[in-house]
Design goal:
302 residues; alpha/beta; TIM Barrel; eight-stranded parallel barrel; 13 helices; Proline dehydrogenase family protein; flavoprotein
Amino acid sequence: MITRNFFLFLSQNKFVKNRAMKWGPKFGTVRQVIAGETIADAVETVKKLNETGLSCTVDHLGEFVYSEEEAIASADVCVKTLEAIAEAKVDCNLSLKLTSLGLDVDRNLCRDNMLRILETAKKHNNFVRIDMEDFSHLDATLDLLHELRKSYDNVGTAIQAYLFRAEKDLRDLKGINLRLIKGAYKESPQVAYQKQEEVDKNYLNIIKIHLLNGSYTAIATHDHNVIAEIQSFTKEHNIPKEQFEFQMLYGFRTELQKEIADDGYKMRIYVPFGEDWYGYFMRRLAERPQNIRFAVQGLFSK
């Protein structure tokens, strides 16, 4: 059986990545979950999703940034993306990873890049989501978030339910717009739950805590059981639909996305774009067996 760990290993294997990148965008399955390689591709995809009642957030894919030049170039793309979103007048936020902005190169460089991005977002009344990465970047990400929020309230992050410390971090971030996810990286038993049922239980726990303390909550899941439970929970506790949204990945469970939106809930689609698609794609395959079947079907449908 192809395992989650196998795809997580592949997501960080540079040799396999280099080989895959030669045929990647031509591989039908990749094109079903990646909006394209350019900002224009992303904006066009967002327009089509907006027309069906879906909100969006776009993410310029990029990992393994090791130089100041690469980090600044990535920040430039983020700024240009926000400008393009404003010009097109689409319903869309921006998501990003701090490592793509130089977190592993120089913290001050990363902070300065984020300040430039947030100032652009503020100018256009938009919101920026800092995606959470692996555990080794967690403290640095939260420290920088707290610093940024001293000047900007249009920035939030994500909390991963598979980490033991997720509830504590969530409570420390009360009042902040958070994206709540189960988690997509391979983490050690010292810091993370290893059993899926434990992750699922903690996921529902942190969602309910954040909702009950009045904070805006982005519930990122493809699990219809979780969605149904949260819909019942919010009705039971009179939590308004304006306080939360559901989120799904572009290309996955499209019928359910539309169904949720048609029921009057905000449904936001996470739309990745860019040439550096490999790590993202492999982590999606690792997350759920259904995703692996989806990829194999795409391969043999060509």
